[in-house]
């Protein structure tokens, strides 16, 4: 029986676990939602010995900048079937241009501000992993609809600012395809077919709910956190052609219109 060990059973990885269990896989995981404590080395090593496939959704450590899974268990992962959930943030700001998997990341090119995620992305690739670069993730309980309902939606006045997004179920289908088809190692962008501004998504969510959109604000007026401000300072369109060609992946929600309609 195929056995998947997941490091970090969060929002997205939890849905991947459910999908693999329905396919008859045995799934174990670390983290607060998993059955194994990450710090229990004996239990993790036992699980690693039983696993046929290993997926990490653990982000770099904010304090050290290192990848916790590679730092602690890296030697035990060598030569294994590895899968890693990364971020399209590794491409940095591209002034609205398209990026694909052949585009150098920040860690490869030295351009822009180096970040731990880009370094971790490169390290997992060097280990022979399938690395899934994910843009803004939305889904049940985490969408523009929820932000509008809760009064937390923002519209930032940044003309020409564009980014990509993906429904969590489409991440699941892409990762499942890679797990079950023996896909080649390397990076895969899993994003929808319509990069656009966050304002467009917020305004559409408001129309669906019959509510007025929030006022436009400048970055200064919005008083965003450093992390959120950094997000708005990056501008790029993410191409998904490789995942479609190599994995046979087709997003069920090719744009935010279909995604929000399903969530509504």
Give the integer mean of the pLDDT values. 94
CATH class of one domain: Alpha Beta
Main pleated sheet: 6 strands, parallel
Query: What global shape is seen?
Result: globular
How are the strands ordered across the major sheet?
Answer: 2-1-3-4-6-10
Radius of gyration (CA) equals: 19 Å
Outline the secondary-structure elements:
Elements (H helix, E strand, L loop, with lengths): L2 E5 L3 H12 L3 E4 L11 H10 L2 E4 L11 H10 L4 E6 L10 E2 L6 H4 L6 H11 L3 E5 L1 E3 L5 H6 L5 E2 L8 E3 H14 L4 E4 L8 H12 L6 E2 L1 H4 L3 H7 L4 E2 L2 H7 L8 H8 L1
Helix pairs in contact: 1-7, 8-12
Textual characterization of the structure:
The chain is α/β, with parallel strands linked by helices and 264 residues long. It has a domain at 79-262: Rossmann fold. Helix content is 40%, strand content 16%. Helix 1 packs across helix 7 (168-181) and helix 8 (198-209) packs parallel to helix 12. InterPro entries: NAD(P)-bd_dom_sf (IPR036291).
């Amino acid at each position: 029986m195929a056995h998947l060990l997941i490091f970090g059973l969060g929002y997205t990885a939890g849905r991947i676990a459910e999908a693999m269990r329905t396919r008859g896989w045995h799934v174990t995981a670390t983290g607060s939602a998993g059955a194994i404590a990450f710090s229990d080395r004996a239990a993790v090593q036992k699980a690693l010995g039983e696993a046929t496939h290993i997926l990490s959704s653990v982000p770099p450590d904010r304090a050290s900048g290192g990848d916790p899974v590679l730092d602690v268990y890296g030697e035990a992962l060598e030569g294994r079937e590895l899968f890693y959930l990364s971020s399209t943030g590794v491409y940095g700001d591209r002034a609205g241009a398209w990026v694909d998997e052949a585009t150098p990341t920040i860690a490869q090119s030295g351009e822009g501000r180096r970040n731990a995620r880009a370094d971790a992305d490169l390290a997992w690739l060097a280990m022979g992993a399938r690395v899934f670069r994910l843009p803004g993730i939305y889904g049940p309980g985490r969408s523009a609809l929820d932000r509008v309902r809760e009064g937390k939606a923002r519209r930032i006045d940044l003309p020409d600012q564009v980014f990509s997004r993906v429904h969590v179920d489409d991440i699941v289908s892409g990762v499942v395809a890679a797990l079950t088809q023996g896909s080649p190692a390397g990076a895969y962008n899993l994003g929808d077919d319509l990069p656009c501004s966050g304002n467009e998504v917020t305004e559409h969510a408001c129309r669906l709910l019959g509510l007025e959109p929030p006022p436009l604000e400048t970055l200064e007026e919005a008083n965003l956190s450093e992390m959120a401000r950094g997000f708005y300072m990056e501008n790029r369109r993410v191409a998904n052609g490789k995942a479609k060609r190599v994995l046979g992946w087709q997003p069920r929600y090719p744009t935010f219109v279909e995604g929000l309609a399903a969530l509504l």
